[in-house]
Amino acid sequence: MLLKLKQVMRIALLSCFAFSFSNAVFAQKKQTSPLLLWDNKPAKNWMTEAYPIGNGRIGGMIFGGVNNEHIQFNDNTLWTGDENDRGTYQAFGDLFIDFDQKDQSFTGYKRELNIANSVHSISYTQKEVNFKREYFCSFPDKVMVLRLTADQKSKYSVAIRLKNAHGGKITVNGNKVEFSGKLSNGMPYQATAVVKIESGKSYPVKDEDGEKLKIDQADAITIIFTAATNYSNKREQQWKGEEPAPKIDRILKNTLPKSYANLLKSHIEDYQQLFNRLNIKLGESNVNNNSLPTYQRLINYKKTPDHDLEALIFQFGRYLLISSSRQGGLPANLQGLWNESNTPPWGSDYHSNINIQMNYWLAEPTNLSECHIPYLDYINSMREVSAIATRKQYPNTRGWTVKTENNIFGGMSFLWNTPGSAWYAQALWEHYAFTKDKAYLKNFAYPIIKEISEFWDDHLKRRPDGTLVSPLGWSPEHGPTEDGVTHDQQIVFDLFTNYIEAAEILGIDQDYKNHITDLKAHLLKPKIGKWGQLQEWETDRDDPKDQHRHISHLFGLHPGREISTIKTPELAKAAKVTLTARGDESTGWSMAWKMNFWARLQDGNHAYKILQNFITPVGGSGTDYNKGGGIYSNLFCAHPPFQIDGNFGYTAGISEMLLQSQTGELQFLPAIPDQWSAGTIQGLKARGNFEITNLQWKDGKIVKLSIKSLSGEDCIVRCPNALKKIKGITEEKSGNDFKYSFKTQVGKMYNFEG
């Protein structure tokens, strides 16, 4: 729980003190390198230059202009469509601050996003006045907060205005600027900005842009902003909850009495209790790199090693997940929650054939389990609508599945993606595998995993020889539609594996567990083709010149666990042949998946080669399905255009390079590249609910290792080098690796040295 300070302490806290106090008191692990995205000029482009802030529901893209500030904002529940029409995720609006200072000249400009405390700041000097702005989005207080200060009094004369992305009227009432309206599907929405000034005066004005709040000669300005719809993720309530007006009134009633310092402190405390669980250092970097703007570091990266930049992009993925996926809300969509368009690419939807799944690969291993919950809740919320649609499409089947494109009401469009729900079920299992929360498994995850297994029990095609195949499958997003597509077979294998283990753990449904075990044994297995590749289809037709961005038939390698270098070396070898043929360059998210593939193949140098390709600065916002991927100057992943799954997949890929646990062992440094000659990471999580509180390595070997057992599970550790023997721990050689087996106790730390 958040610490409660006495009211007198709250009043005494000053804004400047809040930063240092929060960082000192609430930091759990000291970050080893500056975690800053910064630029020496304002942003001109939303997609490539503006910086994101968010609290899991509302978010903003900050431009940081000197004469005009522009913050484009969203609430991730603002959707058109319904249960029968996918609709699209909508832009919400814009907040503008127009400064009276019309002199274009300024010096010392810096626009900075500090992902260590989730605070965006802007500073510059204009006419010998030092101006500073600080922005953040608070999850505990449910608001966006903007603070404008200067080192001289009476220097802020501005106009504050809102713009409704759907053309509605803007009103000013006292110190409040707001708008409201309804979408075509009847969804109501409202956005409200409350403006506090220190000295000076404020009054409403009206011009061709509509009503706005004018402020003259203020010492400082604080804006408390929030937005809302009436969306609820409960179908039994017709997807409707509290109306936006009373919701906003309640939020502001709670928030407005608080000082800026108090709001800042609560925000940083809440954010850092998630973010500071993990710290990473990858190799050595030139300390001068941190003095360069982020875009310049990207430009220099191909010529000058910058391992701190690699770690920054890793942590940026965690920042984005915390900012776009918090308990009680919706999961991150194709753009997280940041969207400037009412017709965004692919509707900025939930794509079920890799994209939403990739968004959450990092959640459990990088110690953000709570941020996984919106995705799990989303899966639960769609069950009834999906079951109705599934029965219409596939009569006489139990359970449910989904189409490729999905919204927040259970509505779907495009092609049926029959293995989509089975892939969703993997997330339900993984949350249990990492947390060992048996009550969650029994009451939440197991019923959903079982009903999806029932769908496949009914949907699988039985051949005369007993082989079971998925009928009329498609290997996303290319190739023929036919039976026994490898992608489908591997996902069903994964589903059945997880169901069987869940039933065994809970000790229930013995007969049905045995039935699913029999089905799993008769599934068509992966095949190795004529040029040594893992076949994408049952027919050996793979083209060695095919470099399609989707490599769907390697699901069993990652994120599945059917293929591994240790347990199925021949299949792993075939997967490597396929990956090599597909090539290293692709769209952004595809390169992120390839990082994870090569990590699972335990080829760290090749995984690192893909990582380097990913860190390729790109510009423009057009769609490129081939080799246009990389990263924008604001570190957003470029499909292109922007798709957030690449950011999340990159972070997951580095996690896989340092620690893997999908085979029942904790394998350390399975894909460490030569370039990371020395490094350290604290806070990774492994299946079995183990926290790696310290992992240090040098020259590919473990130097120090500390494992905290949070559930008292038996532990098997696999390492590239021998560890000092400890009494009670069994050691054995396994190929080139060393294995250590031991029983653990809840809460106990196990320390090793190389």
From TrEMBL:
Residues 37-86, 88-233 form the Glycosyl hydrolase family 95 N-terminal domain. GO terms for biological process: carbohydrate metabolic process. The keyword Signal applies. It holds the Pfam family Glyco_hydro_95_C. InterPro entries: 6-hairpin_glycosidase_sf, 6hp_glycosidase-like_sf, AFCA-like_C, Alpha-L-fucosidase, GH95_cat, GH95_N_dom. Residues 259-658 form the Glycosyl hydrolase family 95 catalytic domain. Residues 1-27 form the signal peptide. Keywords: Hydrolase, Signal. It comes from the Bacteria. GO terms for molecular function: alpha-L-fucosidase activity. Residues 660-751 form the Alpha fucosidase A-like C-terminal domain. This is Glycoside hydrolase family 95 protein. It comes from Pedobacter roseus.
